[in-house]
Amino acid sequence: MNLENYSSNYFSDIKEGLSKLIATDSAGNVLDADAALEKWVDICEEKRKQRGVFFFCGNGASATMAEHMSHDCFQNADFLTQTCSETSHLTAISNDISYEDVFSYRISKMLKESDMLVTISSSGNSPNVIKAIKTAKELGAFVVTVSGKKADNKSRQLGDLNFYVPLETYGMVESAHAVLLHCWLDMYLDKYKGGRH
């Protein structure tokens, strides 16, 4: 493998992937990325005013990103947030029911129309993420999906707003997702909270 200009090529590939981000609505219509982000931001403000819960979920690195964003939104944006990443929950539901239910089990017991589910999945095809989306939609919650890798991944076809980054490797997708999620939160803070910090 040629390692010449490795870092500059790597950073350039992530930047290009983000520049080709595809945002869609529930009908699959392609939206302008900035307009889609602002729509997400505005819906978040509506949910916050309704005292809705913002539920974040993902697997592996995406689970830590879900926890990270959950905390940042709680501390900086005054959102009521929730994840399913605590060890006791993950192990009990996985052992007693199934790993496919690890998110949907809690979602089925607590989400309502005033709430929002944000799923983060590099592949967009994790069975537990797909089940979480379907459960949240059945309960009337607003669903935002963040995905990557293959363009035909399942999750980006199921959300009310879907953000897809066309990158192929986990490291690049995860890095792009972190930038995208912070962009969304910073846009919210700039619009509704007097600015990011």
Can you walk through the features of this model?
This protein is an alpha/beta fold. The chain has a single domain (17-192), classed as Glucose-6-phosphate isomerase like protein, domain 1 (Rossmann fold). 50% of the residues lie in helices and 15% in strands. It has seven helices and seven strands. The protein has helices at residues 6-19, 33-49, 61-76, 87-96, 104-110, 127-138, 170-192, and strands spanning 22-25, 30-31, 53-57, 80-82, 116-121, 142-147, 161-164. A seven-stranded mixed β-sheet has the order 2-1-7-6-5-3-4, with helices on both faces. α2 crosses α7 (170-192), α3 (61-76) packs parallel to α7 and α5 (104-110) runs parallel beside α6 (127-138). The chain is globular and about 50 Å long. The relative contact order is 0.17.
